[in-house]
Amino acid sequence: MASLTFHLFFLITQWTFSEGYITYIAARLPLKGFIAAPGAPWPMPKEWINSTEQFTVDPRDFLIVYDVECDIMVAAEKRYRDLLFGKQSGRKAPDLKQVEKLHITSGKCEQYPSIGSNESYALTVSPGTVSLESSTVWGALRGLETFSQLLYIDSNNEFKINATTIVDSPRFQHRGLMLDTARHYLAVDTILSNLDAMAYNKFNVFHWHIVDDQSFPYVSEAFPDLSKKGAYGPNLVYTKSDIQKIIEYARLRGIRVIPEFDTPGHTQSWGRALKDFLTPCYGDGKNPGTANYTSHAEYEIVNPILNSTYDVIHKLYSEVKRDFPDQYLHLGMDEAYRACWASNPEIKNFMALKGFGSNFTLLEQYYIEKVITIVKNMSTKIIMWHDPVDNGAEVGNDTIVQVWKDAVFDPKKFLPWQQYLVPVVKKGYKTLLSACWYLNHISYGPDWRKRYECEPLNFTGQCMTLVTVDTLFIRDLEFKKN
Length: 482
Hints:
about 30% helix; 2 domains; 13 helices; single chain; Hex-like_dom2; disordered C terminus; eight-stranded mixed sheet; signal; TIM Barrel; Beta_hexosaminidase_sua/sub; disordered N terminus
């Protein structure tokens, strides 16, 4: 398999201005190293037969045609024509055979991609017509992206493309990127730019971590005060039209949008509008709503013993389901720190009545089961972080469990990711792997090496039904059963 290595050089510079200074990073690319040849596809296709025989393209009359009436293909044809020729000043090479047309054959027009979408395609570059064949529009999109990477402009400012045969399909069905818009609000245009970058790299899932402790930017019609009181500001929110714009932009690029509404932890922003939704912590041992900051804040985790809690979840998640058409909803469920629950006498009385004793895993299980029942009654499938499974909770065999912990974060606190993933896989859960690719843990130097050296199948386990990544860095992945 061919390798592709990028080398970045970072220069830290200080620019003095009046009373302060600005520190910035300048990136010099490329430096000495292994550089991909012009026209190399990315990610590496499953099968790639490349030739040194060159053809040319005349940007003035090159045609992109397709055999299915579909808004996805109409938008793709315009988008890629602009990418290829809109800002380029290249011309055809007069002494080479010419490629005049890209002919796309695909299956029927599907409205939205899903976890089972077939993204395979076959691409053949020869004089006259380039043939792109796929059984779905989603495969056609991936092949069209590959074609755009094969075409290049040489030092003579001439368009060139090599004779090429590619047969490609992804190793894994789910190739995702998570953006956290709660800790750091991202403008809609920034999210759209990220979706473009995902399409260029053939990612197909936008995992939208939309709310958290810090802010609640999702504008709810059922609970308008959640964003009014929980967002960073009145303009730092996502309206219904914003969400529709993002979903449509993603759909046209073959990208699913899966929102995450994390509970029972990571919910402080909810409590600014719905105070009873959160458990009052007894930090001083006597008074509700008091903190013990070595263990917990005043209010920081959902109150699992109130019926009103589940009324809020049902009403809000029903609205979320209407806004987001994907079949999956991410329920979070990570880092449910129990110190606040343990400080609350009403929680402890409830646990005694239920026969839970002092076993907070049973209380967590109680909460999870009620939320899962609510969501499944909406005909929605579930993804959640692996923390409840680590704690011994049962979350239903049709739940996809996402592994994030790894010793790289803190070797004194965490184990290597394999030791979290293997127990999940052995229990029969479909699994997402995120542990290797946390981009908020970036250091100076060749960080990229450890990103690319992570092999998701580097573990010993039972039948793995699905392993995938949720990260910016993706290798040529395949669907595999052991």
